[in-house]
Design brief:
With 159 residues, the chain is an all-alpha fold. It has one domain. The protein contains eight helices and no strands. The longest helix is centred in the middle third of the chain and has 26 residues. The mean pLDDT is 93.
Length: 159
């Protein structure tokens, strides 16, 4: 899939700036990984809060993300343009909802989330292809976060 270059002037708009991960989505290689990396600091910060507070924040960001990603996709003329990374940011934060405090858990969650977001096992790929609009853009990353969470739970139980 070929996409046209995006003007950095879009970053002047708060909505597009968020959608493009403060510019991380404009990187020519691995914009999704760069976007996820943007979420490392907020994820670490959120580990100091209870799970209900984390869940409330991620829920608000998810709903907001539907609008942000839809508006940006329309502006770019491309559903789920690779430069749109707000979904990766929120998806990664969702994958950290039940993490215990610790840098190693954040890194493990980062690796697992990127794996599931890139590989897109069923139904992630199906959702990515079939569900349109901002909801579709956000939903496949939420599913990748669910797979990440399941793996983290299995690791926690096993070890």
């Amino acid at each position: 899939m070929t996409t046209s270059p995006i003007s950095v002037l879009l970053l002047k708009s708060p909505i597009y700036c968020l959608a493009l991960g403060f510019g991380a989505g404009l990187l020519p290689r691995a914009p999704g990984t760069a976007g996820t990396a943007i979420a490392l600091l907020p994820a670490w910060w959120l580990l100091g809060y209870s799970v209900p507070i984390r869940l409330a924040l991620v829920s608000v960001l998810f709903v907001l993300g539907i609008w942000i990603c839809e508006k940006t996709a329309l502006q770019l003329g491309h559903h789920d343009h690779p430069a749109i990374v707000f979904d990766e940011i929120v998806g990664y934060l969702a994958s950290c909802l039940i993490l215990p405090a610790g840098t190693s858990w954040l890194i493990l969650s980062f690796i697992l989330f990127r794996f599931f977001d890139i590989v897109k096992p069923w139904p992630v790929r199906y959702l990515d292809q079939k569900v349109q609009g901002g909801f579709g853009i956000m939903l496949d990353d939420l599913m990748a976060a669910l797979y990440t969470t399941i793996c983290i739970l299995i690791i926690q139980i096993t070890f």
